[in-house]
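Input (structure):
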């Protein structure tokens, strides 16, 4: 199989963008979001304080505007960006936005209608300071187009789905190694490093010389992320200082970069033997996830899935322990639309890919959450992660 989106598909995406631009009467699209840049061209970079942008004209050559350190990187990653216009660094003797004004004038866009995802002309990451592009190029008409590319990404193509399916295979291996390596007396960091290293090694040998990660520094993340014992009740914890003990709840998880895309796989596991309370909470979580799977029907709304899990937790008398909605979109980012939330009545369409992860959390005790990746089809939801879900197989003995 391919391990990256084909150039032909990237060209189709650019054509779709230009059709959308034509409907909005835009002469160009100016993007600062790195994910949007990758989606259209296959070029990914480390976003820092240095302003960067992709300019897609209605017709003509696509251009990258950015720091000189990316000058040789762009043509290595893609042939779709035909012009690379750079400045030395930020903030510089001459501010990057001043350079961008000159670049846009050179492209004939000084008095044109330009769609953008940032009127400042740069991402605000890491404390960007500078004159807004819209003010510096006041003759141009800048129009909000921040949702143009994200809306395109909602429904995945066959190639994108293929990438996510392949990701699921390796996430399955990563979580199995996490389960195998998790042991009393170990710090979860030790477990994570060992499982990540071994999964990466096996994966590279199996996929061969053509494989490389596209949007991650490491192709695999396999870890517990500090979700050990009482810290498993903090869903977005990043670390814990203590070692794993008998009776702990642990939550291993994995993401794997295939062509820049990833699934999500998480499991709740218990060291040695579950207590009666742990069994009760685990069972309630599992029934809530089953209710969510059942709700993934043709024509279902995102809110229907969240309502199903809330109903299951209410029935178990544990709804007061819910801290988040039932899931979110997956693809190029760990969290992206659509949101499986009671307040989102957006219809789930075939080709959408989401996580399904209802959870409950009691501070000082433990958290309970499985996460699976679900592909919406004409028939409903298809679970494409497939690690065991029952307590017997998730008890670490």
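Output (sequence):
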């Amino acid at each position: 199989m391919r391990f990256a989106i084909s150039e032909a598909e990237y060209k189709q995406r650019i054509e779709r963008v230009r059709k959308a631009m034509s409907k909005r009467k835009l002469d160009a699209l100016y993007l600062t979001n790195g994910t949007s840049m990758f989606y259209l061209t296959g070029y990914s970079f480390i976003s820092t304080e240095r302003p960067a942008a992709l300019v897609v004209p209605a017709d003509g050559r696509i251009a990258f505007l950015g720091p000189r350190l990316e000058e040789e990187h762009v043509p290595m990653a893609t042939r779709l960006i035909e012009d690379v216009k750079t400045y030395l660094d930020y903030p510089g003797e001459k501010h990057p936005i001043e350079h961008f004004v000159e670049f846009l004038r050179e492209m004939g866009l000084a008095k044109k209608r330009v769609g953008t995802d940032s009127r400042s002309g740069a991402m605000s990451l890491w404390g960007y300071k500078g004159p807004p592009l819209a003010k510096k190029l006041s003759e141009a008409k800048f129009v909000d187009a921040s949702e143009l590319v994200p809306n395109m990404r909602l429904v995945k193509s066959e190639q994108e789905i293929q990438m996510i399916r392949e990701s699921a295979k390796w996430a399955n291996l990563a979580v199995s190694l996490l389960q195998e390596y998790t042991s009393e007396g170990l710090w979860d960091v030790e477990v994570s490093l060992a499982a990540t290293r071994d999964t990466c090694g096996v994966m590279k040998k199996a996929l061969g010389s053509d494989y490389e990660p596209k949007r991650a520094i490491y192709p695999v993340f396999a870890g517990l992320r500090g979700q050990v014992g009482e810290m498993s009740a903090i869903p977005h914890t990043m670390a814990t200082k203590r070692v794993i003990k008998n009776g702990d709840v642990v939550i291993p998880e994995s993401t794997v970069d295939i062509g820049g895309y990833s699934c999500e796989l998480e499991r709740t596991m218990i060291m040695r033997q579950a207590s009666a309370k742990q069994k009760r909470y685990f069972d309630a979580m599992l029934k809530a996830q089953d209710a969510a799977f059942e709700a993934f029907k043709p024509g279902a709304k995102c809110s229907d899935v969240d309502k199903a899990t809330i109903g299951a937790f209410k029935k178990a008398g544990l709804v007061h322990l819910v801290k988040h909605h039932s899931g979110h979109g997956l693809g190029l980012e760990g969290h992206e639309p659509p949101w499986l939330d009671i307040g989102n009545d957006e219809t789930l369409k075939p080709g959408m890919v989401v996580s399904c992860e209802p959870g409950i959390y009691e501070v000082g005790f433990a958290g309970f959450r499985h996460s699976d990746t679900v592909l919406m089809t004409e028939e409903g939801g298809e679970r494409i992660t497939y690690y065991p879900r029952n307590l017997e197989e998730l008890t670490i003995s």
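Notes: Residues 7-152 form a domain with the Creatine Amidinohydrolase; Chain A, domain 1 fold (CATH 3.40.350.10). The first strand starts at residue 28 and ends at 31.
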